[in-house]
Design brief:
- By secondary structure, the chain is an alpha+beta fold.
- It has helices spanning about 15-25, 65-75, 95-100; strands spanning about 5-10, 30-45, 45-60, 85-90.
- It is elongated.
- Strands 2-3-1-4 form a four-stranded antiparallel sheet.
- Strand 2 and strand 3 (about 45-60) form a beta hairpin.
- The two termini are about 20 Å apart.
């Protein structure tokens, strides 16, 4: 597994996204959280849903994933929040060093 990761998550609104982002950055679990408005179409409890959401791109380190996942769950209203880990295979060394500097 790569040392560095991108975690993708979604939430219903900007306020929830900011609360999660701030919780992660303030506790040094993430170096950066980017937020994007998106439109999601998905199946939930046998119903097709079409809703606006906020997508979070969370930059961090693999050894912090469990703590990040727990923090998202603690601050998230969804019954089953999206939490997907994407390994970062490579990147600008100075940027990866910055992730190290900003996280525990």
């Amino acid at each position: 597994m790569s040392k560095y990761i991108l975690i993708i998550s979604t939430c219903a609104d900007k306020e929830t996204g900011k609360a999660i982002a701030k919780a992660l950055v303030e506790t040094r679990l993430a170096a950066c959280v980017q937020m994007f408005p998106i439109e999601s179409v998905y199946l939930w409890k046998d119903k097709i849903c079409d809703e606006g959401e906020i997508m979070l791109f969370i930059k961090s380190k693999a050894d912090l994933f469990d703590k990040i996942s727990a923090t998202i769950k603690e601050n998230h209203p969804y019954e089953i929040p999206e939490i997907i880990l994407v390994p970062i295979r490579d990147g600008l060394p100075e940027y990866l060093n910055w992730i190290d500097d900003c996280t525990e």
